[in-house]
Amino acid sequence: MKKVVMWALIALLVTACAGTKVEVTESGLLKSNFQTEVNGKKTDLYILRNKNNMEVCVTNFGGRIVSVMVPDKDGNMRDVVLGFDSIQDYISQPSDFGASIGRYANRINQGQFTLDGVEYRLPRNNFGHCLHGGPKGFQYQVYDAVQTSPQELTLTYLAKDGEEGFPGNITCKVFMELTDDNAIDIRYEAETDRPTVVNMTNHSYFNLDGDAASNADHLLTVDADYYTPVDSTFMTTGEIAPVEGTPMDFRTPTPVGAHLVSDSDFVQLKNGLGYDHNWVLNTQGDISRKAATLQSPKTGITLDVYTNEPGIQVYSGNFLDGSQSGKKGIVYQRRASVCLETQHYPDSPNKPDWPSVVLRPGEKYNSHCIFKFSR
Fold first, then answer.
1. Stated pTM of the model
2. Phi, psi (deg, nearest 5) at residue 55
3. Fewest C-beta atoms under 10 Å: which of 7, 125, 181, 295?
């Protein structure tokens, strides 16, 4: 909390000396650092606040959650997501931090799939596969943004037919609401003029300690009896395997780092360089059932995740390597966060036995995720 206040005071002093007024968020972000143009479209920072003084900052560049200020067990406000201080930093240090991912979250095998007898080829940007919609996916596009209330934001993006190889003009909407019970309620909608595939998610990197240090002590619970194994290129094999008796079992609260060293020879931890896997949720699309929980013993902050999606990707920040400096100049070291990406399963377009991701004209894609914080 002291660091946030210090940064805010510094920003205000600089502003006063310059004789201009600059808006500073509770997390210490300068709104002006997000007001520019990317690809000819204006970007900005949108600030959501509820009656409990919780604050969520979102930029329309990639539909990214930039900061989330929540109270810890002592009432101190902590920023619990990774991100950058400016649009320029997001551009110069490419990442998925906080992004509204599309058109297809996660991986598609070898960057190709067949739909209605037509083969589509996509960019191969990750170990020979198409990841998160390709190198110019939604996370690098500018959404149109309308803040409809102090607690609500609507983001809209039109992805054109053939963009990153995907068929169909598709209008995607992301509705974000900061509720008075300290939840970020995210709804995704999409409509298309040609048959296509859609799988959207939020890619926030959570560190509930608020200091971007190791996530090893965070307690993770996932309501899933099965997961989808991956090969050495992080691609799902098509198998749905039981978690019972493996390091993939998070049915009871377990430290994220509990098995990363002691069971490092377990083939799935080797293939994923840690956790980078999809769990098959037991919740069966029931948004009222808790799908996952992340807890910090240090701060007492708890994050509960709810979704109508069949799966959730747990990613333990394995590719963070200290090369990126985030907000306040904090260096993001390996495994400094946990991502909880609600989704359909990876490579579903090539696995017809898995829940379908096909969207056709006249249909509406709906996905719902709730990140609820407590202490």
1. 0.94
2. -130, 135
3. 181
